[in-house]
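4-diphosphocytidyl-2-C-methyl-D-erythritol kinase
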Amino acid sequence: MPPVGVEGAGWSAWPAPAKLNLNLRIIGRRADGYHLLQTVFRLLDWGDTVYLRARGDGRIVRVSGP
């Protein structure tokens, strides 16, 4: 069920599935500074739904909580 005020107000719902990292290793560094990773993970049948809406002024606002 969407949060109060979200339904019909230009919001779109996006799944945010959960995963469990079984193994995560840093195996190097790329030229742009990011790390090279080696990972083994398992997707879970659990997660959240993220609701997003584009603003007319281009600002990004983060809202958390119920």
